[in-house]
Amino acid sequence: MKLFDSHCHLDDERFNEDREELIKKLKEDGVYKLVTAGYSLQGSRNAVELSKKYDFIYATIGISPNDVPDTQEELNRQIEELKVLYKNYKKIVAVGEIGLDYHWNTDNKDIQKMAFIKQIELANELNLPIQIHTREAIMDTIEILKNNKVNKYGIFHCCPFNRELVKEGIKLGFYISFAGPTTFKNAKNAPEIINLVPEDRFLVETDSPYLAPEPHRGTRNDPRNVKYIIEKIAEVKGKSFEEIQNLACENAKRIFNIE
Ligand code: NI
Question: Which of 182, 236, 249 is nearest to 31 (CA)?
């Protein structure tokens, strides 16, 4: 197997007890490469540390909409710190996860939008793609992407099953990443969404430790489970596991600029 998990959180505390062992096992069990995602300043530092320690681990750096600070000054300070983190270090493959999330908080929409736009600028300055988190904020997300060009494009991580978002995202040049919910029994329109995405524009991810796919739903997720998402896509598209696995791998290497 040659699995490429394009988004997970290996620094999560749910891995504290057995992180080293698990990472060793991942490689043995066919995880070829993975991207561990930043979501806050500390989360970004953790991701970078992991990518320094293991050759097959890459990192993203960014402040997620659920981690934006209350003030603009603090936001600017954190973004400056992200730049310091990036300096002369080549295993940071995207700015993310960044975006908008109105599920948990609708009182801070202005600073969420500001953080999103400023980090698109950061991505352009660092010549990186972005990894987008969007939840219950589809129209605003699309509007910001239309008005703020991302030179290296990026990825909609854990793609919501929304036809408009996927169509617009593709039109704007972005990749769509499928996660555990693709396999859930109630994801009735998953096949329709999967078929909307061209073969050179999809990725697969676990978002572990969250969102374990079927048949492991409800347990601690880990990057090996990306195989269930590949299986689902293969089934929907009527292709072999190997074919989908290889496409996902090539697509991830292209967008993240990995050899
Ligand atoms: Ni995530």
Answer: 249
Ligand 1: distance of its center to the CA of 210 in Å?
Answer: 8
The residues spanned by each domain of the chain are: 3-256
CA distance 228 to 55: 24
Of 152, 158, 150, whose CA–CA distance to 193 is shortest? 158
> Measured between alpha carbons, how far is 1 from 212 in angstroms, rounded to an integer?
19
What is the rounded CA–CA span in Å between residue 76 and residue 115? 9
Contact 56, 31 (CB under 8 A): yes
How remote is the CA of residue 131 from the centroid of ligand 1, in Å?
9
Q: How far is the CA of 58 from the centre of ligand 1 (A)?
A: 14
> What spacing in Å lies between the alpha carbon of 17 and ligand 1's midpoint?
20
CA of 136 to the centre of ligand 1 (A): 16
**pLDDT, tens only, 27-80:** 999 999 999 999 999 999 999 999 999 999 999 999 999 999 999 999 999 999
Ligand 1 centroid vs 100 CA: distance in angstroms? 13
CA-to-CA distance for 67 and 55, rounded, in angstroms? 28
Q: pTM higher than 0.90 for the full model?
A: yes
**Per-residue pLDDT reduced to its tens digit, 100-120:** 999 999 999 999 999 999 999
- End-to-end Cα, the chain, rounded Å: 18
Interval between CA 207 and ligand 1 midpoint (Å): 5
The CATH class given to the 3-256 domain equals alpha beta
